[in-house]
Write the structure tokens for this entry.
Amino acid sequence: MVPVTRRMRAYFAPVNRTTETPTIFDPGLCGMFPLDSPPAPWLDLGWIENFERWYDTPTDVVRSGAKALPTAQFRGPLEARVEFDFRQWGKVQMALAGGSEHMNVLATAGSTSPAPSGGTPAPGAAVLPGSTASELIFGAGVASVFAAGCLLAVDLDYQQQTGYVGSGIAAAYVSDPVAVKRDPNYVRRVTFNVGRVAEITATSVLLEQPLLAGAPATGAAAQVVVAFVDREGGAFFQEWSALFVAEEASGGRVCFYYPRLSPNPGAGALKGANNPAGRFVREEFALIEKPLSAISLRASFLALPHTDPNDSQTVLCYRSYFPAAMAAAY
């Protein structure tokens, strides 16, 4: 049985940066991973194209004897990469393709202190107790602050702490409060805890999708997001667990699971008629019908090591094959 697939699908989940613990995909429990409703904390990032994997770990031999015959093999430094195009745009897709801190452009109260990643924002609205991941309570007058359809960033004020910041998913690393201007809005500038307002009640807003970090922490505030912006450069390196699924069309599913992937734009490049020098392409323009083109995000990742608990081997990627019913074993 030859696995046949129409398209590849991408799922990402956060790595706990404090403990470097990945989100585990257990093929024994998740063999029939529900593609349309993945279990938390996996995020469905849509269909991808031009999926390519590289295993760049060299293998060498130990030679001995008068004729220097090979007597043993060993592996050199481990290295593996994966690249593909996101066909859908969103905050997480842009963050992964960008590679460093990803910014929420917060709505401003005026034109004071303009900045390429967003100037001085309007003050945040306090999220009241009793709020959930899908309903944020603000009290009377909520309709004068938020509107149906707007995006919200929901997180705590920055309180001059150092280390990873962002509820649920590490969004940035602060080594010096001075570097972020001691801005109380900084965490909401970078947080992944973003949602779109579906409906407004007398005292609350209902979100189209639950917040990634769950119910807001005590003391959280919300601010309107007008756009997302990523930057070429930056000191922060993200880490995610990733699962790529080649959905079966004629039986047989193939899954590629990377416990730890770090976005690494520029690590590799596609060479072709339009890119003979092999430069890394940041966006692809796929012609639909002149003059219309679909814009895709090119993403490149470096695989980081994971220790398999069953035998303590160092692993970069797991490839799983789930045979179709009654398919031959070999």
Notes: The mean pLDDT is 90. Helices lie at 91-98, 186-190. The longest strand covers residues 43-55. Residues 175 and 232 are 20 Å apart (CA to CA).
